[in-house]
Structures are given as structure tokens and as C-alpha cells.
User: What shape does this take?
Amino acid sequence: MPASAAPRVPGGYFGRALAVDVGTGATTVVPLSDRVLRDHLGGAGLGAWLLTELAPTGVDPLAPEAPLAFCFSPLVGTPLTTSAKFAVVAKSPLTGFLTDALASSHFAISGKLTGNDAIVVHGACEQPSVVLVDGAGARVQPADDVWGLPAAEAEAALRARLGAGWRIAAIGPAGERGVRYATVSHDGRHAGRGGLGAVLGSKRVKAIAVRAATKVAPADRVAVLAAARDLRARSLGRATAKYRELGTLANLLAFNALSTLPTRNFTAATFEQAPQLAAEDISDLRKVARNSCASCSIGCEHIYATKGGQTARVEYENVFALGPMCGVSDPDEVLAASARCDELGLDTISAGGTIAWAMECAERGLVDAPWLRFGDGAALLRALDEIGAGTGIGPLLAEGSRRAAERVGGGSADFAPHVKGMEMPGYEPRTLHAMALGLAVNARGADHNRSGAYEADLSGDLDRLDGGQAHVAAAIETEDRAAVMDSMILCKFLRGVFTEPFDEWAALLRPVTGWDVDGAELRATARRIVALKRAYNVREGGPRPTTGCRSVCSASRSRSGPAGSRGWPRSGCGR
Amino acid sequence: MGTAKAWLPWHGSTLLRRTVGVVARGVDGPVVVVRAAGQQLPELPGEVEVRDDEQEGLGPMQGLSVGLHALDGVADVAFCCSTDLPFLHTAFVHRVVDAMDDDHDVVLPMVHGYRQPLAAAYRPSLAVEIDALLAQGRLKPAFVFDRCRVLRLADDALVADGRLAGADPSLDSVVNVNEPADYEQALARPVPEVRVECFGVLARNGHRGPRTVRAATIAGAAQAAGLDFDRHVVAAVNGDALTRDGATPLVVGDAVTFVSADAGG
Assistant: This one.
């Protein structure tokens, strides 16, 4: 091979990331070797690698030099169902550790087809701006006119200005104000957890706009098409029926029956008014549409009518967080709160969790907000508005429950349910012991997408109320599976269709990339990605004993957590 | 009986499987089954420990000795019963075990005036006393009661427990089947009345809301509810641990929750 020959780029990739200094407009190409791509795949795995390589050690997540990466995957652009996904990765202003939020839309396809496997932004603009990336590279344009708008309105305004070929991810007012759990939104979807919207807002970047400029070729197009047909057929089977028929809100009544529905800031595990929010009823009365993400055959997105003729997309997590967690049972108020979070660009789980903590503080007389009471939907909406506007109690709550508890004191940290500063999802860990462990040790914090250990608890194969070594193994297995799915990227709602997931995922990767990858290699890849995330956290000051969730961890009796079971040193890798 | 009691069919399960399952639900610890050496047993849950009784002809005292030795140092109290208690209720097990206190070594139900040594609670440390009695050829449980502190619970004391009073007011928990006629008579009784509720997609097609059915096992309850209890479905009894084991026994008053095996986000 001549010395000047370009390195071989595997199928499904471009072999490069584009880094944009939004302050100067300068761009840098970061070469991504075959080895880097094969070791980290894409999405969350590639994001962890990029963050490790590009982020200064100890950087303030909201400082100009903190990078934020949009990471695509080898499957994006193929006909494989659920593959139009991307990861947004940065150091979280909420946790101080790595956060990686996934989302699905045409933004993934257009972003990748700019000719980049990732787009990284760093620096800070002098004025509100939009970053444009297409085949000609990147440039930064003023966007003062859309600053202050909800993400969806900003997205629409920018598309009107730029043209229909552009796909846009934007932040809402919460991101502009630096709310530590602000989202990045696009096409009604959200990269939700960890405050990525605040990272963009700190750079005065209102939006990233991408336009497809090229194509990406899989190694074996015919084999990819065959695999896509097979996966699509399987995606329509019984394993995904729940998502198609009722969506994730189907969890609510089931979790209530199993005493695993966090209620009133985790003071209870059942909500007596849960039936009022049940998917089984709301679906019949209010459902107006069912949508799919781009390139998805499942169609899990259930759209419901709200008071005043509006519609809202409803998932279990936003109903749990803004409903039972805050003691609110009126579906109109919960749907309105969910829609308000979307408008402001707030992560519903952290918003609901932080407000629920504040409600308990108010009832204990620890904060001067006597209006903030469990069960009061109007108070919930007022709290959301104040977070978005930066008024009243908003600035305190914008910090997230851990930091807010540090400021309020009075023992309020003892009832701020979070892990690493990230508010808890809707899984009561005291009745889900594998999940308790998964939440406690997860690199991102309290998160049900990077640790799906609840699968083991709810499988019937383990005793969810009596954690032991088998639960440790289950927590590791589900974390490993998530690491690969989040890096390839495939939607987790597909997981039930795979019987030998690592082997089957390798079979999907082979025709796309041309690699001779097998299941064993993917297992090693999963461990590498999980370890890399933890290593990044350690570099940034972890582990920190910051799990504050009503003695949640004591619910798991496992003596050896994943760190020990993975064969890692006890120090530095546990949390 | 013509068939070993352990193998007697019981509404889609076996008598031993039912008794083991009810005891397991009634206690917070391991379950030990003592069998004659080499005896074949019907399928049991994997967590059940099986011990061999190496000496034949010594009756229930030898079985008590083997079982209590297995639990000595593992549990503070052991509920000991025979195989053939088809109407044993978890509330009865709870009542007897919970009655044990620091002042006693045995909790002995006296149902309708009769001692029930094979539906009683024992301190596992009594195994040593029982061994001594066996060595002396004293093979009746009554001899044990002469050597330890016994709390006797008559009918009124037993049903003073509200849950037991509601679930098994006539204390049928101690009814055993010694003859074929007993067995046939027991089989002819209605199976327990339980409440079932399906959630999520399982609640579609008219399956929404709680219903009362009669079923002796989770699989029976699923069938009565119109569900296939396959790999896509798990069940919880009274909101407790989830299981895929359709042979899990049900007792009067149970509430069975059926959810999709893929519950969660």
C-alpha cells in the first residue's frame, strides 16, 4: 500500500468526526480509525471515547471548552428498523460525570450524511447562534430571533429560514437559562437526561442544523436488506405488542399493583389514584394518534388529546414523574405538565423528581413555598413555569434536587432521591433489587436506560424482593446489553425479539461494516464501553458516595457489586 | 393409597408440590423436603432442598430429625408438616410460626382438641433431643413435648388471627388424606376462590379489571382468566415476587396479578 493511501473505512462509517469551535467557526477533522470504531461502535460508545479524548480533565460542563458530541452509528442510514438514532454526549452539568442521551429522528440520518460519524461542538458564541453542518463543512449563524422560543418553534422558524433540507436539534428556554436538566429537542423528540440542553445553552447555541450531502455504503447491501426484512418482521411480533398497543404507559397500573410505582417523592410505592392515569383508560378516551420514529416499524409513540384541544406525547416516565411522584392524579394536569416540559425543554424525570422533593420540603417547612403541595396540579405547573422563567423558586429547582438540597439543608438531602445527582426514574428500587443495584452503580446516574436491570426483576426468573449474586449478574448483563444497543444504535424496545442478542447483533453489524465481528467480540466491546464511561467518571473525580435515595442501596443485599464481579479494583469503579 | 402421597395429583399439580409451595409462601426461609432414601419425587422448585431419611421404619420422628438438622443454624423456627395437607393455608403457617416466642420451643396447634404435631413449629435445635429419643426407641412426637416448652394453640387462639379466621375459619389446614376415600373427598371440594387481574396488553380484549375465579395454581388462574401462561406472561401472588412457575399453589383469598414478562420501559 502506498504510504499516502487513506486508511480503510469500514462500511457504514465515514471514519471521521467533525469538531466545530462555535466561538471562531473553525473546524477540525478528528480521524476515527477502524480500531476506534470497532472498539466503540458509535452512539454512546463513540461518544465516551470522544469525550475522553477531547474534553479537558476537570472541565466545568458549562465552560466554553467543554465539548458536546452528536454521535451517529454504523446502522444509521440503513433500512434496519429503529436505526435512525443518535447519542448526545457531554459532561453533565447535573452530575459532573458523563451523560449520554439518545433520541430518534431524521436528524440522525441527515446528521450522519453530512459525512461525519460525529459532530462535536466546543467554544462559545458571542451571541445566540445556530450551527450549520452539511457537505460544505460547518458555519455559525446568528439566531437571536429564535432565542427564547420553545425548541419546536425555534426548529420550525429555522427550517423556514434555512429550507426543507435541513434537520434541526434545538434547545428550549430551560437550556438557555442553564437549567441543569435541560434537553436537546428535535422533531418532538428529546435527548433528555443529564442537562445537555444547558451545555448547548452555555455556548449560546440555540440549535444545530444538519443537511445530508452524501451517502454511506454498507459492506454488503443485499445482506443488509435481507437482515432488515427479517428484523422488521420480528419487530411486529408479540415481544413489542406492549409498545404498539398501549405504549410504555402500560407500566403504570402494573407497577402500582406490584408496589413499584414511586409516589410522592418515594414516600410510597403505590398511588391510590393511579387508575385515573392508566393507559388502559386514557388510551380509549384520549388517544388521537400513534406515531413512529424515523425508520421504525414499532410505532410506540402514543399521542393523547389534552385540555384545550392540544395534544401531547405520553410515556410512562413523564406520567410517573409529573403524576404519582408529585401526587397529581388529574390527567389533564399531568398532560399539561408534560407538554410544558416539552415547551421549556426540561427532562420530565428530573423536573418531576426535583419538584416532588421541593413539595416534601414545603410540607416540612424547609422552603418558603407554602403553595407547593403534593397533589396540586396547578402548583406543579407554576413550579415548571418558574424553573423555565428563572423566577420565584425556579432558580433553586433549576439546580436539580442534589444541589438544591445542599442549599436548603435541614436534612433535605436525606429525601432527595437521586444517584450521582440524577433524579430517579419510575422504578421503586426497594421492590426491585436488581434495579436498585443497577441504578446505584450506573455511570450516568439514576437511569433506567443504561441499566435495564428491572428486566431481571420483572422477568419472574429472580426474586425481585431478595437481591443476591444472581441479581449482580443480571445487573451486569443488562448494563452490557445496553452498552451495545446504545452504541450500534438499536432501540431498546426491540430487545425482546432477540434470543441470543450479542450473536444476533453481530450478525447485523457484519454486513453493514464488513467486520468479522461475533457475539464474543461484542461482549468484550460492551465491557470496554462500560469501563470507559466509568474511567471517564473516575478521571473527573468519581466515585463519589452520593447516592441519596431513602436507603435504596441497602435494599440490595449483594455483598459484591458489579465492580467486584467484573473483576475491577474495588476503588474507582463502583459508582 | 396405591400411590405415594407425594405423587397424588392435585388439580394440575401434585400434593407434594402444593404443600411445598404453600409452606414456601408462608415462611421467610428455605424449604426442606425429607424423603426415604432413593425415593422419586415429583418436580419441585429449584430452591427446595431435598434430604434423605436413611433409616426406615422410625416414622415421623426420624423425618423431623433430618429436617430440623438441615435447618439448625439456618433458621430460628421451622414449620414442620406432612405431605398430605391439601387445604393448608399460608395464614395457618404464618399464625403458627409467628406464635413462637423466646419462652417456647414448640408451637403445637390443638385443632378441634387434637394435637397436630405435623402442622407445628419447632426450634431446629430440638433435633438433638429428637435424636436422643430415637436412640431410646421412643418414636412418638408426644415424647418430644415432654422434654421442651410447648405453646399449645387451641381453635380460638388460632382463629384469633383475623387473616386465618377469614381464610380458614374451620381450620381445614390440618385436614389430611390417609385413605383413598379421604383423597377423593378432598378432590371433590371446590378449588380456592381467588382474585385475578391482568395489566397492560393482557388487559385488552375484555380482560380489564379484577375478577374472581376458582384455581388451585397460577396456571389454573391464568386459564380461568383466559390467558396463555407462556413466556410472555409472569404473575405475582398478593403483589409479592414475580414468577413464571405455573404450579405455584394458590389459597383462598389470594390475589393474582398477571403482567407482561417485558414490563418496564
Observations:
- Residues 544-560, 570-575 of chain A have pLDDT under 50 and may be disordered.
- Chain A touches chain B through 39 residues (CB under 8 Å).
- Chain A is about 40% helix and 15% strand.
